[in-house]
Sequence to fold (249 residues):
Amino acid sequence: MTKHSSSLSEDIIPGGAHWSLTVKAGLTLRLTDIEGDGNVGMLFYNPANLLERYNAPDTLKCQHTFKLGTGTCLYSDMGRIFCSVIGGTVAWHDTVCGTSTRQSIEKKWRPVSYQMGRNERTQNGRDSFLVEGAKYGLGKRDLAANVNWFSKVAPDAEGNLGFVSGNSKAGDYVDLRFEMDTLVVLHSCPHPLNSSKTYPRKPIKLELLEAEPVSMTDICRTSRPENIRGFENTETYVRHTTPSSSGGH
Fold:
């Protein structure tokens, strides 16, 4: 388990819910799958410039991978690193399959409206992103390809991707160290390829912790040559945008 100080704050996100928060550089966000087979859809934005957001194609391309796991970095569309995966117990996290929609939820499971079910309604990922994003002036045009933490997909003989059940067990976690201030928008709705017979409501625990300083031999920094440049770009940006704490006359 990644070594950290005690939790600064923690929350439980019920299954089929959504949330958002701004995570400061130098903090780690730990996500824990409480029951197993959970899914956390997540998007990232620069709170100082909301036009800068997570870029899944660049993240995968520059690190020569199809999945996210320990040692990978999550890039913005401006070549900076929002956060790094510094630890965890799940080797595969999906970032190619997008998120569920109202139509896909209704096709798989009996729809339950807020009027009918209140907190037991069948929410979907796309609307969850839109509801949370609207709090910051974000809309449909601001949606991007998202991460699905704890979820894995694999191809069949014909090349069709399918959801792999059991990829994440109860108590599994992933640690995200933030390299720059980041607006995090998330939901706990099912993965779009989840084939469960009933709408899965999997709660997720969120914890904020102090991160250790990034060393020159850090696993995320050195896992790819491209990541060294990504860290340098990010560190330059942070230095030039963070107000100095020293006084002056």
In short: Residues 32 and 57 are 26 Å apart (CA to CA). The radius of gyration is 18 Å. The chain has one domain: 9-240.
